[in-house]
Amino acid sequence: MPELPEVESVRRGVHEWTAGATITRAEVIDPRILGTTSQRRIAVGAEETFSRSLAGLRIVSAERRGKFMWLTLGESDPALSLLVHLGMSGQFRVQTAADEMHKHTRAIFHLERELGSDFTGSGSAGVGDAGRGPERFEMRFVDQRIFGHLGVQPLAWSHGRFVPASTTHIAADPLEPAFDFEAVVDRLTAKNTALKSALLDQSLVSGIGNIYADEALFRAGVHPLANPSRTRRSRLASVLESAILVMHDALQVGGTSFDSLYVNVNGESGYFDRALLAYGRGGQECVRCSTEIVRITVGGRGTHFCPNCQKSPRYR
DNA sequence: CCATGTCCCTGCAAGC
DNA sequence: TGCTTGCAGGGACATG
């Protein structure tokens, strides 16, 4: 499940491969990828509109806020972006036309890049031919569960920068200059819901998903059901700080599963060998105190915690 | 406005 | 063995 560190790893890979490249053709294999996550009804002609609006545009850069990623596009007025959300299982793969098509390929971006252009990539080994002329390759969007989403969006101002218009409600993430730690803690203190649910609220702070929420609460030693409005401000700050630290740690090792054919994102292996202390460890011993890690459901999400290290709040 | 519940989708595991 | 059922997850939307 890609959260901030994973999406950032993907963004870096996508940027290296595609910045400066031109989209010669955008091919939609499964139009459901163009719908929003809940509304799967696709407007008539959405595929054609999507493809037509991208054809011929140059990719300037890959950017990210929270779990949302987008490519800023040149030669368009107003400035457009290709919005990408990986959902649960979205992946980008850089391949050539000759490469075998993955079963869950939902869209293909045919790209072209002048050899010797100023792309900053880690190399084009294995992609394109060895001769002259533009280098041609494909960036394929693969998504097993179709919780991911692609869309063409104008850019709009939100929380200190331009972002795709449909994401203006998403808060700044902790890696952004606009992120205001104290302001987020202030807003957190007003929340009257499970602390874990508040951590997952992308309009409060973006980028934290189910895994890192559990890890942050474990690291800070705070119960997932604690009510923020009844919790000491210093404890809330500690949890938020832990979330930032654990995501930072994960990002440090997030770029592991790179090779010439992958733009990171190896849904199978890459995500799961992180040093997780709570998430997915239900029934196992706590690494700190050997108490059995408990699994409960909070806001419909699987939640893992140590009942000894993360004491139940007294008001419950 | 705020909090909670439901749905989207697929593959896998468990149960009959 | 082969079917059905339930679960996992992020975010939009509907409801309370």
Outline:
It contains six helices and eleven strands. The protein has helices at 4-18, 46-54, 181-189, 195-199, 210-220, 233-252, and strands spanning 22-28, 59-65, 68-73, 80-85, 90-95, 105-113, 135-143, 149-158, 161-164, 294-298, 301-305.
What does this structure look like?
The two termini are 31 Å apart. Helix content is 22%, strand content 23%. Mean pLDDT is 85; it is low at 119-126 and 255-272. The chain has helices at 4-18, 46-54, 181-189, 195-199, 210-220, 233-252, and strands at residues 22-28, 59-65, 68-73, 80-85, 90-95, 105-113, 135-143, 149-158, 161-164, 294-298, 301-305. 41% of the residues are buried. Helix 1 (4-18) packs parallel to helix 6, helix 3 packs across helix 6 (233-252) and helix 5 (210-220) packs across helix 6 (233-252). The longest helix is centred in the last third of the chain and has 20 residues, at 233-252. The chain has 316 residues and is α+β, with helices and mostly antiparallel strands. It binds a DNA duplex (16 and 16 nucleotides) through residues 1, 32, 35-40, 67, 85-89, 104, 144-149, 191-193, 197, 200, 202, 209-210, 299-302.
CATH class of the largest domain: Alpha Beta
Count of spatially separate domains? 2
- Low-pLDDT parts are 119-126, 255-272
- What percent of residues adopt helix (DSSP H or I)? 10-25%
Could you tell me the radius of gyration in angstroms?
Answer: 21 Å
Query: How far from one another are the termini?
Result: 31 Å
Number of helices: 6
CATH topology grouping of the largest domain: N-terminal domain of MutM-like DNA repair proteins
Strand order of the largest sheet: 2-3-4-8-9
Count of DSSP strands = 11
Full CATH superfamily name of the largest domain: MutM-like, N-terminal
Shape, please? Answer: elongated
Annotated CATH architecture of the largest domain: Alpha-Beta Barrel
Helical/strand content category: alpha+beta
Instruction: Report the portion of residues in β strands.
Output: 15-25%
Mean pLDDT over the residues: 85
